[in-house]
Amino acid sequence: MTILSTDKVKLNVSVKDKYEAIRLVGQMLVDAGHVPAPYIEKMIEREDSLSTYIGGGLAMPHGTNDAKAIIQSTGLAIITVPEGVDFGGEEPAQLIIGLAAVGDAHLDILTSIAVLVSEEEDMQRILNAANEQELIAIFESGMEA
Fold first, then answer.
1. What is this structure's pTM?
2. Can you tell me the distance from the alpha carbon of 25 to that of 77, in angstroms, rounded to the nearest whole number?
C-alpha cells in the first residue's frame, strides 16, 4: 500500500470550515484502510487543542498522540482548497494534508513535506496541479530528495 494514491487526492475542493476539511481528509484515510473511523474525531480533538496549521498555506491535520495505537498503516490524504480555509494562521490554508503514521514515521513525513512546500514555486505547482497524478508526482519527487 502506498502512502499516497489518486483515491486519497481531491483537487479544487470547497469546504465551509477547517472541520469539514479535516473530516474530508480523515474519511479518505479511513476509506483507504489506514485508520478506523474514530481516528477522525482524534484529528478534530488534536485541532481543538493545537492548530495543525504549519504556515505558507499548509495545514497537516493528524490525530492525537493517544490515537497512534489505532493507526493501521502510514498514509496521506490531500485536498487543495483554492479559496482557502481558516486554520487560524496568518493566511488561509490552501493545501490540507491529512496524516496517519505508524511509529515515528510522521516526523520524517512532516519534515519532507515542510521542505517541499517551503519553496513558493513548489507550492504553486502543487496548487496548480492539473490532476491527481500530477500532484502525486510532485510529492513523490519532492519527498525522495
1. 0.93
2. 5
Q: Which of these, 124, 130, 133, 78, lies nearest to 100 by C-alpha position?
A: 78
Q: Which residue in the block uniquely carries the three cell numbers 473530516? A: 23
Identity (one letter) of the amino acid at 67? Answer: A
Cβ-based neighbour number of residue 7 at 10 Å: 11
Long-range contacts from 117-123, C-beta under 8 angstroms, 24+ separation: 117/56, 117/57, 117/58, 118/56, 120/56, 123/56, 123/57, 123/58, 123/95
Q: Which residues of the chain have pLDDT under 50?
A: 1, 145
Q: Directed axis angle between helix 38-49 and helix 18-31, to 10°? A: 150
Among 18, 42, 62, 106, the one annotated catalytic: 62
62 is catalytic: yes
